Amino acid sequence: MYVIMFHSVGNEKSNWYRNWLSVSLEHFEKFCKYLQTNNYTTHTLDEWYEYCSINKKKENKKLVLTFDDGYLDNWVYVYPILKKYKLKGTIFINPEFVDPTDQIRENLENVNYKYDKIEKSKSIGFLNWNEIKIINESRVMDIQSHSMSHNFYFKSNKIIDIYTGQKEYDWINWFLTPLSKPFYTKEDQSIQIPYGYPIFEFGRALGLRRYFPDEEFIKKCIIDFKGTNNVKFFLQTLNRLLITYPGYYESDDEMEKRFRYEIYESKIILEDKLKKRINFLCWPGGIYNELSFKLALDAGYKATTLGSYLGDNINICEHKKIERIGLSSFIKTKKGYYYVKNKFYLIKLLKSRTGNLFLKIYLKIKKEIFKFIVNSNLI
Question: Which residues lie below 8 Å from residue 275, measured CB to CB, with a gap of 6+?
């Protein structure tokens, strides 16, 4: 049985900075129709767990479809399309990103699956609890944990950049103004990050000991930045100034308390809201460390996604690791993400990743040729 990873669907052309996380509706519907027509079966993670307990062989026509982060388009597009083709899916939810509104929003079922009847802007954002409950009770899609915050945090006192409007640092808002998190995909929140804000080395929340810069140092950076045009020189000056404003690292107890909040609290909230057991955890970015992994075991998760930090260095027989195959509508190059127009692209990717060696080699060669052309300014 193979586990497939998606995030968003239908917002690949939106103004959202991370629109490359979204597969197109054309790709996704062709993919789902192919699964139904070709007798694929889709399963929940509980079914995957039971299957893996007695089978080591991966059957390429048994799939688990997972969707990270809990985007609103999972309600607007994914849930109705899976229902239409009699397929199942799983959404990994971060409670801190859940939309605080109560209104159940329009989806494809309300407009008889006519895509053009739903404004694209109405599929941008995150799920609210009422929508999550309907999805979970439908048995079309299961809900599991993606930790509480999905945050990035600073991990050292080395300054690597200064904020001057770069969209890739939008996550700074996630800890500066946490209540704005459910709306970050549909509003320009970069204005909430002060120009001159120092960017320290950073990483995923569940894989690091957090570093806290001195608040006075932050204020000084923002004020002093207004008088400089040379960012590189300013960075050098700031790194020297850190001797006076060293900041501090969280203690062992503080780190464990934060990890417990991420791992335990998300489970508790989801179980309380949905009146069910939450058995599976998806590590944001696939990153964890020895302590966060141990806490996940202690919290009672039956399996977690296979991460990149420790990989197979942790061997717990009772604990299964969910190895996933990511499918995307885009090819990543040094110059950005490029949408693949072939409407059968997801199908080809699936087949190449689940046993079709010829197609795997063919797509890899074609991808490398395309990246070379783009990176060499030949198009």
Answer: none
Q: Which residues contact 344 (CB under 8 A, 6 or more apart)?
A: 30, 34
CA distance 84 to 170: 36
What the block records as the tokens of 65 is 């479809």
Under 8 Å CB-to-CB from 75, ≥6 apart: which residues?
105, 107, 127, 131, 135
Burial of 334 (0-12, 13-18, 19+ CB in 10 A): exposed
Closest CA relative to residue 23, chosen from 337, 296, 375, 278: 337
Q: What is the pLDDT along the chain (379 residues), one digit of tens a residue?
A: 999 999 999 999 998 999 999 999 999 999 999 999 999 999 999 999 999 888 877 888 999 999 999 999 999 999 999 999 999 999 999 999 999 999 999 999 999 999 889 988 899 999 999 999 999 999 999 999 999 999 999 999 999 999 998 999 999 999 999 999 999 887 655 568 999 999 999 999 999 999 999 999 999 999 998 878 788 888 888 888 898 999 999 999 999 999 999 999 999 999 999 999 999 999 999 999 999 999 999 999 999 998 755 544 555 556 689 999 999 999 999 999 999 999 999 999 999 999 899 999 999 999 999 998 988 876 6
For residue 143, give the nearest of 157, 155, 153, 129 by alpha carbon.
129
Which residues lie below 8 Å from residue 358, measured CB to CB, with a gap of 6+?
A: none
Q: Which residues contact 255 (CB under 8 A, 6 or more apart)?
A: 209, 210, 291
Predicted TM-score (pTM) above 0.85:
yes
> What values do phi and psi take at 304, rounded to 5?
-130, 160
Buried b (16+ CB within 10 A) or exposed e, 33-54: ebbeeeebebbbbbbbbeebee
